[in-house]
Design brief:
By secondary structure, this protein is mainly beta. It has two domains: 213 residues, Beta-galactosidase, Chain A, domain 5 (Distorted Sandwich), CATH 2.70.98; 146 residues, Beta-galactosidase, Chain A, domain 5 (Distorted Sandwich), CATH 2.70.98. Helices cover 5% and strands 36% of the residues. It has three helices and 32 strands. The strands form nine sheets. It has a nine-stranded antiparallel sheet with strand order 13-14-15-16-32-28-27-20-23. A six-stranded antiparallel sheet has the order 19-30-29-24-21-22, with no helix packed on it. A hairpin with a 4-residue loop joins strand 5 and strand 6. It is globular, with a radius of gyration of 20 Å. It starts with a strand and ends with a strand. 47% of the residues are buried.
Length: 396
């Protein structure tokens, strides 16, 4: 007989999330290079202290991160003229990040437990079916309505270049089984790489799929579309989606479609191609690409090869992405600047238009728990989940 365990945001979860206070104080006390005021990130949410942490390297690059949701708030890199430029979207205060009603976002977050969508807000482990909390129609998106992007991580700034963030997710959190302890480590290297590692363990078999959800605009101008940016994806195939963004189960070739980014392509050349049903349905690109850097025979990814890249011809800023994961979700900000979202003020009082940015999210394929033929997202109690993604910036 199959057991069904219903999802809930448990009272126990709430108690656990509210009980502990992080003791580590951030090094940031003065305004950052990106113009952020650290005091705007000093608060207490769910009983835990939030703050802004700053990483710097010898090259002058600066990355600001808040432990609320493990979110990257700003990334300052030099353009071709040496001008320091912020290249990620976000807010300039923690209250807006925390307000899921009036300013919902995944900006810069360390997503968990499961990045992307799980169909029909449920999945099975053996004979047990777990009912999750739906927050995207009938689906569960990014771990549910109180996913880790809306929780406070315990923060430890190891040094000027390294930040360690830890979260303990209780058994039953948004319906997911097992108490999971997860660690996200951000490291800034001298070659202008933001290196991210995720590790997790569980007390029961569960699924986990973490990613970073930064929205990149390499033009440094968030007031207008970023469709002039040039995208490259090292993928021969992608996973087509239905009308509610769930994979159909097909692995389709990019050959002969607008999704053939094996030759770098400016997004404005394809973003409005409504003759391609995948673009028409999503209002742009919001799809998983099956990376050539991943070996499906050994289930290993080569994170020394470029998985994807993004380039701004305006600033010359060039971003390369490396990962050990099998897939990367390319999202072109199709819901930005739409409806009431058009009037929300973000960092430095800017309103974001549609297609202002590109997300490059390393991941297991969406809805993997329903596709056992794909690289698994399952994690057992005797295993450690490990994922790696690196964002390397340079100038062309």
């Amino acid at each position: 007989m199959k057991t069904i365990v219903k999802g809930f945001v448990s009272m126990a979860a709430a108690i656990v999330l509210m009980a502990a206070c992080n003791e580590q104080k951030p090094a940031t006390v003065e305004p950052t290079l990106s113009g952020l005021d650290p005091e705007q990130f000093s608060d207490t949410i769910n009983g835990k202290v939030t703050a802004l942490y700053t990483l710097k390297n010898d090259s002058g690059m600066e990355v600001c991160i808040t432990n609320f949701g493990g979110r990257v708030v700003s990334i300052m890199v030099p353009d071709r003229n040496g001008k320091m430029t912020d290249v990620v979207l976000g807010y300039d205060n923690v209250k807006q990040y925390a307000d899921a009603v009036n300013s919902p976002s995944d900006y810069g977050a360390s997503i968990g437990r499961y990045a992307n969508r799980i169909a029909n807000h449920s999945f099975s482990v053996g004979d047990v079916t777990y009912e999750l909390v739906a927050n995207d129609g009938t689906n569960t998106l990014h771990g549910g309505p109180t996913g880790w992007q809306y929780q406070v991580y315990d923060a430890e700034q190891i040094d000027d270049r390294t930040l360690k963030l830890t979260i303990v997710s209780p058994d039953g959190d948004n319906g997911f089984p097992g108490e999971v302890t997860a660690i996200t480590t951000y490291t800034l290297t001298d070659d202008n790489t933001l290196d991210i590692t995720w590790e997790a363990t569980t007390t029961k078999e569960t699924v986990i799929n973490q990613t970073n959800h930064s929205y990149f605009n390499l033009n440094g101008d968030f007031s207008r579309e970023g469709t002039n940016m040039v995208l490259y994806v090292n993928a021969d195939n992608f996973t087509p989606s239905d009308l509610i963004y769930i994979p159909t189960g097909e692995i389709a070739p990019v050959e002969g479609t607008p999704f053939d980014f094996r030759t770098p392509c400016a997004l404005d050349e394809i973003i409005n191609d409504t003759t391609f049903d995948q673009i028409k349905n999503a209002g742009g690109v919001d799809h998983n690409f099956c990376l050539n850097t991943y070996d499906m025979d050994t289930y290993r990814g080569d994170d020394t090869q470029v998985a994807a890249s993004l380039y701004s011809p305006e600033t010359g800023i060039f971003l390369e992405v490396f990962t050990n994961e099998p897939g990367i979700q390319v999202y072109t900000g199709n819901f930005q600047g739409v409806g009431r979202d058009a009037n929300i003020l973000r960092k430095h009082g800017v309103k974001y238009p549609k297609h202002v940015s590109v997300c490059l999210e390393s991941q297991k394929y969406p809805d993997t728990p329903h596709h056992p033929e794909w690289p698994t997202a399952n994690l057992k109690p005797d295993e450690t989940y490990r994922s790696h993604c690196a964002y390397k910036f340079s100038v062309k």
